[in-house]
Amino acid sequence: MKATVVVRLKTEVLDPQGDAVSRALGKLGFTGVKGVRVGKIVEIELEHEADKTALAEKLRTMADELLANPVIEDYEVIV
Amino acid sequence: MKATVVVRLKTEVLDPQGDAVSRALGKLGFTGVKGVRVGKIVEIELEHEADKTALAEKLRTMADELLANPVIEDYEVIV
After folding, report:
1. Out of A28, A36, A44, whose CB is closest to B43?
2. Residue pLDDT, tens place only, A32-71
3. A30–B67: do the CB atoms touch at under 8 Å?
4. Closest residue on chain A to B59 (Cα)
5. Chain A within 8 Å of B16 (Cβ-Cβ)?
6. What's A13's domain CATH number?
7. Distance from C-alpha of B73 to C-alpha of B21, rounded to nearest angstrom
């Protein structure tokens, strides 16, 4: 089965990559872009079917220990 | 309004970052991880409410021109 962790910079943290994308879109002629934020999507393929609640808990532990930097990032677990 | 473009490496393209995450999870004691793929999630805040079909088309153009590398990446537009 497959599960996903989306890692985003916290809203109060500046996102230079997102700002660069936003400016580049403007230069390419795309109007109406107010802002862009770029995050990571980590897709994990797991061997066994597991109870969704237990799996979500496991993924939150993975995110806390490895996938996200809790100082500047938030994460969302999708199972 | 907000729209999202998810950019993933094509399945036939090796993902060294995902492999590194997969190995690190194993070293941290997480069992049952078959594979990990890491992609980008680009969240775009737009000034005006727009017709969803037109917006999706605009985002596909953005992805083709800037957000994704069509040689090695696929993208998914979510409006």
Report:
1. A36
2. 999 999 999 999 999 877 788 999 999 999 999 999 999 9
3. no
4. A30
5. no
6. 3.30.1280.10
7. 19
Tokens of B54: 């037109």
3-state secondary structure chain A: CEEEEEEEECCCCCCHHHHHHHHHHHHCCCCCEEEEEEEEEEEEEECCCCCHHHHHHHHHHHHHHHHCCCCCEEEEEEC
Number of separate domains in chain B:
1
- ipTM for the complex? 0.93
List, as ranges, residues 20-39 from A with C-beta within 8 Å of B.
Answer: 21, 24-25, 28, 30, 32-39
Percentage of residues of chain B with pLDDT beyond 90: 91
Residue that the structure tokens 């660069």 belong to? A20
| pLDDT of residue B27 exceeding 80 | yes
Per the structure, the complete domain to which residue A34 belongs is given by 2-78
CA separation for the pair A7, A25 (Å, rounded): 23
Q: What percent of chain B has pLDDT over 70?
A: 100
Better-predicted residue by pLDDT, B50 or A68:
A68
Q: Do A25 and B58 touch (CB under 8 A)?
A: no
Query: What pLDDT is stored for residue A49 in this prediction?
Result: 72
Separation of alpha carbons A22 and A63, rounded Å = 28
